[in-house]
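mind reviewing this stuff:

——
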Amino acid sequence: MKIKKSKVTDQSASGQQGAEGGAPKKKGIKFRSKVPGVMITQYVEQMPEDKTTPDFTRKPIGLTIQEGKLAIFKAKVIGEPKPTVTWARANGEMNDPEKFQSKFDPNTDEHTLEIPNVSSDEADTYKCYARNEFGKAVCTVMLNIIEVGFKKKKEMAKSKEAAATKADPTEFRKMLRKGKKKEEKKEGEIDEDVWDLLLSADKKDYERICAEHHITDFRGMLKKLQEMKREREEEQAQFIEHLSNLKQIKVRSEDTAEFELDMELKDPNSQIFIYKDGVMVAFSREMEGDVKHSLKQVGKKFIFSVRNLSAEDAGLYQLDVGGVNVFTSDLKLPPVDFAVKIQEVKAEERQDAQFECVLTMPQPEITWTLKNNPIETGEKFEITCSEDKLIHKLLIKDCMPVDSGIYAAIAGLKSCSAWLIVEADKGAKGKKKERKAGVAGGGVDLAKVAAEQQEKYKKDMEAALEAAKKAQLEREALDAKAMSDEEEAAKRRAAERAAAAERAAREAAEKAAREAAEKAAKDLADLEAAAKAAIEAANRPGATPEEIAAAEAAKAAAEAAAAKAKAEADAKAAADAAAAAAAKKGEGDEDDDDDEEGKKKKKKKRDGPLVPDTVIDPGVQFSSGLEDCKVMVGQPTELVCKLTKEDAKGIWYKDGVEITAETEGMTISQDGVFHKLLIPSVSEELGGRYKFEVEGGRKSEADIFVEDPPRFDGEDLEKFAAPTIIKAGKRASFKLPYLGKEPVKIQWFHDGEELAPDTNIQIFNEEGHTCLVFTGKLQRKDTGEIKIKIKNEFGTVEAVTQLIVLDRPTPPLGPLEIIEASASCIEFKWRVPKDDGGSPITNYVMERNQIGRNTWKKYGEIPGDAHYKDTDVDHGRRYCYRLRAVNAEGISEQIETEDVQAGIRAYPGPPSVPKVESAFNDCINLMWTPPTNTGGGQNILGYIVEKRKKGSNLWGQVYPPEGQLIKGKKFGVTDVIEGMQYEFRVAAVNMSGAGEFSTPSEFVFARDPKKPPGKVLDLKITDSTYTTLSLAWTKPVEEKGVEDEAKGYFVEIRPAECIEWNRCNVTPLLTGSFTVKCLKSMAMYWVRVIATNDGGDGLPRDLDNYVLAMPPPVRPRFTDLKIKSLMVVKAGNSARYNINFEASPWPNVTWLKDGVPVSKRITVSNGPTSSQLLIPSAERNDTGVYTILVKNIVGQETFSIEIRVTDEPKPPGPVEVEENVPGTVTVTWTASPDEKRDDRLHYMVAKRDSTKKTWHTVADRIFNNKYTACNIMPGREYRFRVFAKNDMGMSLPSESPKWLIVGKKEKFALNMPETKSCDLDRPPKFLVPLRMHTAPEGYECYMSCAVIGDPAPHVTWYRNNVSLNTNTNYYISNTCGVCSMLILRVGPKDMGDYMVVAESELGRAECTTKLTVRD
């Protein structure tokens, strides 16, 4: 598939003057519309009121569609009067109304152009014109066509071209030159396909791609690539919302290559195309069946696959969305093979293993897979490659049993695979195994093989190079031969044309000479007749002298005329000969012109001396011509050219108009051979094409491009750059004139952020002038850089200034730095304000407050230094300061400092918590201990005691009777009310004052003391769970004077590992039951209950033993009524097994596979009453017996389930039939590919003979690859089918060829031989012996052999020399000499040596084998 793109004939809308239906062109004022890509032409200079020129409100959109579809262009136009709309195309006519349908919808005011059933011929640039009497508007749109399928016209054109080349060799040469010219590219130019590859590649691949395609200008490539990426992203943005995770196409498995990407489409219905080398490929949306190409979408991920890879699949693959290229990737399939394939590796657990291979040609990387999943370098795997790119290695680190499997190496279209077998270390079960030294695998001298392969590859490359050179020489010889044949043909044609021209010239000369001779002869005859008459008259007798003189004059005239005629005839003949020669030469020149290729290379034949006798002056030549130049408006410029002669003169032209010395603004000068045109000050009108022409018609041309970029006047720029300083709350404006060609784009920036007009900002732009106005009140934060940026088509200019807004300073910064704080002064420093408001800080205003007072003392203004020393302080007092900064704009906000103390006062620490010694109705006795910190060794003068009622927030001081401090460490508080509760605190006093109060005491009643209650009765547990424990008890017995009545209860618990008791309730319980919550599951606790009353807590009552936080114990048991013991799972599907149980306490659940804990890949989810085993994606090595072990402190329970992971088997290989014993045939077949991976795979044999039309099964559950069929009748055709079977089902059959025993028919001759006895007796003999068997534990094992003998022998089976014929655990059969034995479930006891003994009276035969049982 190809995309037929239209040729861009007009680069911009400004030059659109193509076919307009033949309408006469009108000159006018041209300008661009606000709609991009639309050019408007105004016919009149001044537009009347209420009249407008046409314009587009919606222009047509370019299309890229598949051929055969309907193309529609839509446009909307405005204008007064209403414009008319016409359509045209750049290359071709639009006269067919059925092909090009122009319509108008009055409801929507849309003009449409419909092109049904588009083809590649319609791919073009189309133009839409809107006209009225005041002007016209025009825009262009492109139509690209995607070609699909076979094109009959193109093929016919190709066939005609091929026929023409066969008929005429010169046409073939022209075609070659044409094709070669088309493919030529400039040196260093990069193909478009390479750009597509770079646009889709990672940065790390740039160097490799450049090396492959011989790109040397890496920096230039990167620069252009950035520009192309921006353009490509703009194109993709039409269809794609997001694009990421581009992965290049690679061979992922043995026969599949894939690439993938994450792509979010704006329109999910967008068309997606896939191309290979520029040709569209068909693909399926699902990765199913035998489809070659498929594109699968999973969410935002797209995966493209190529299956059944072959060498033809290599190439450049592209993915396009809506005609826009999105992704390009190169699939390379080199003709590489494996010189040394990877071999099977056996490694021990926790040992490293390595696979190695050698390639036949260098490759930087190959693909490694494990079970068809690609492998990449990481923590587990390490992929390396030798320097010569021939030896590739895969290292598997720290091998575990789960790493076993088939590993494959893929290079190009070739692959090889081998097993990695990891032997588990059974001697260290339950322990963490140590890493083992050494690497398993290897052993082959790969370096030697690689060196040999490198040498072979080098020789092959040299041979290929020689063959290429030889082929190139042959091609050049053919080209030379074709060239010589062409030259010979050209010579023959030139000679023929020259001969014909010579004949024509000769005939014309002869004819002219004949006519001239005839005329001359006639004139001569007339003269001779006249002369004769005159002579006769003169000789007549009596002639007068006059007649005689006349006769002589006539004779002289006749002779002169005859001489003149002869001279004219000779001159005419010479002229004709010269004309013929000139004609011949002219025809030869025409032949030279016609023969384009031949005469360019053919040497002309020299017809004279090597050096001509006359030297021809070539005239004036240009030594150096004019050169194009770009000049700014107002700048001088000069055009200079150099001639070969100083005396040569020339004329200057501008746009075809001659320039003279009087031309304004230009100066013409000559300095020897140099001719100059000087323009002192270039204006826009002086731009154009200039030409200097000298004598002889030689000329040189150049263009002056006048540029008018934006720029500023120096004085205006200097004024603008000066900082603008204003006060806060004021407005500011910035003005700056500029020069430059309109239109221009003007941008204003504030601190790098572009400004846009809003309520606080206004921007006024006029031609040559711009202004920025801040209409809102400015603040200090608006201070910053103001930048203006002006841009037009010729360049960009910027200017920068500063905006400074003055305001009050911010507050000074803390904290204070204390320099000195003594009894006589406080000296401190602070930090200056973060922002000084745009003007320097002049001074500070400070106030001081003494802690404890409500007044602030003003200190006035302090000089600008952030430092002060306060000497008006009292020792021990604490002070706080307020500071404000002052500048020219005002005073800042205040900052309040932390407290500072003048000198140091040491107060005593708090005494101990007051302890209640005793309490009565009218007195409560307290005691305490003095503080450890007395205030720097000062003496404690006394104590202050305060009390507070329960429920109150006020503390009241307790005064002693004398009203002084309490001197002792005990005190009786008498100011109490009976029945009220109080708490107390104490503070020590020294010379500095009272220190901190102690922690308050416990609440105490002001009443006479009571007796605490006794122990509770009948403490017991009523219920328990994993987190709660329920208790019950009865209240203690009351005894007067010994144990008072209990008012409440406290429950305390203690974990077995702790020694401290924890109370479960804060307030006493009023009932005889309680539930302890938030226990730790299965933890041991001690529990007790304490009765309490106003007299205090009684003695605790403990439980006799510790308590476990658990429900009542239950032995584990499984609760499912029917539990499956066998599960068959198809490989690749998930296996999920749920089992329910009950147990208390919560049990430990363990899953085992074949007696070993399950791998981490298997997910086990355990709950209190159930467990689930999940295998996410079952594999064949997941087959085994899975056991669940549920165990708690009461007991344990186990259950086993056999999980078999298999798949529908593949059919066996070719089936062969052979007759070993008459009447029986042996059917053999190649094992199914799944036999090694499925231990339960067996075979079924079906038979059909020529007398029956149905198949019937003759044998089933065959575990080897051989079966002996009996009762084979001669003369019948037999066919056998072999099926592979397993737990998932049956495979397709493999069918044998026809088997026929043809009965020999001979002529019947009755001879009566002597009667002899026929002895058919023979001793026993084994035709098919037993083979070695290895079976997994718990699976079936089938043994068979074939024996013959006459009479039929007696067959006995032995294991370790013990007969098995009477053992019911073995199924033994003997059918027509085929002896078989089946073991249903193989166990360790079945291991050993097996022997089959066939005995008869004629002899004895034995056959032995060995059975190995693996775990």
Observations:
- The longest strand covers residues 135-147.
- Residues 1367 and 1386 are 15 Å apart (CA to CA).
